[in-house]
Write a structure and sequence with these properties.
Blueprint: E1 2-3, H1 16-24, E2 37-40, H2 45-56, E3 65-71, E4 80-82, E5 87-90, E6 93-96, E7 103-104, H3 108-111, H4 113-116, H5 119-125, E8 130-136, H6 141-151, E9 156-160, E10 165-167, H7 169-184, H8 199-212, E11 216-223, H9 225-228, E12 234-242
Parallel strand pairs: 1-5, 2-9, 3-8, 3-9, 4-7
Antiparallel strand pairs: 2-12, 4-8, 5-6, 10-12, 11-12
């Protein structure tokens, strides 16, 4: 079974040359972080921009598998699900899927864009790697922390979240700075979905970082108004890597 995500052609170009140009037209700094876990936003490619690129290039360069942990945005689910499909289809080529021992729901992976907008980045930077996709809904962050703990030695981990959403830009900037401080100070108390739609995944990453005495480094904060000019109702974006 192959999954062709609906994000292609809507959230990123469904054209190989156009998508390659997005990546190849930029210069990338040397990777000195060698991180095994990052936090990245989800949106259309034009909104993600430099934050996602800077964050992805902080990941360790060699891996056989990448574990993506993303919130369900369009479906109401309980717990964490994976897919037993064999392949994701992207404009840059196919990505082999490595399933996870949890609930299976193949249909959801067509339209859950928080996860699937990451696929072009993975195919470009890690063309040979397999991907293990996980989507969660109502879930205890400690369960996700256990997944990180069990897999981080053999897989790179990608935690997906946006920050403030649908608030005026001034409020968005204030909220996102607060969220950034909480992530960097590893504060889980009062960290909820009002600050980030992927709060469960972020809290899981903080739990892991605290246990192993690791730190989050911010690669940037931004919001949707920087791209579309609408300051009345914006979505906040941020990126971090763990070292």
């Amino acid at each position: 079974m192959k999954i062709r995500p609906l994000a292609a052609g809507k959230f990123y170009p469904d054209n190989k040359s156009e998508l390659l140009n997005f990546f190849e037209s930029r210069e990338y700094p040397p990777n000195s972080a060698d991180s095994r876990l990052i936090i990245v936003p989800h949106a259309g490619l034009e909104f993600l921009g430099e934050i996602s690129l800077k964050t992805y290039t902080a990941l360790a360069e060699n891996t056989e598998n990448i574990l993506i942990i993303a919130p369900a945005i369009h479906n109401r689910i309980y717990g964490t699900i994976s897919t037993n499909a064999e392949v994701f289809i992207t404009p840059l080529g196919e990505i082999r899927i490595k399933s996870y021992d949890t609930g299976i729901n193949n249909e959801i992976f067509n339209n859950e864009t928080a996860l699937t907008v990451q696929l072009p980045f993975l195919k470009y930077f890690y063309p040979q790697a397999t991907v293990t996709p996980l989507i969660y809904g109502c879930e205890d962050y400690k369960n996700i922390a256990n997944i990180i703990e069990k897999n981080i030695d053999k897989s790179l981990i990608i935690i997906v979240t946006n920050l403030s959403r649908l608030v005026p830009e001034r409020e968005s900037i204030k909220l996102d700075r607060q969220t950034a401080r909480m992530i960097e100070r590893k504060q889980i108390d009062d960290f909820d979905s009002e600050l980030a739609d992927g709060a469960v995944g972020v809290c899981a990453a903080i739990e892991y970082a605290t246990k192993h005495r690791l730190n989050f480094i911010c690669t940037g904060l931004s919001n949707s108004s920087r791209t579309n000019g609408d300051t009345s109702s914006v979505v906040g974006y941020g990126g971090w890597y763990l070292i």
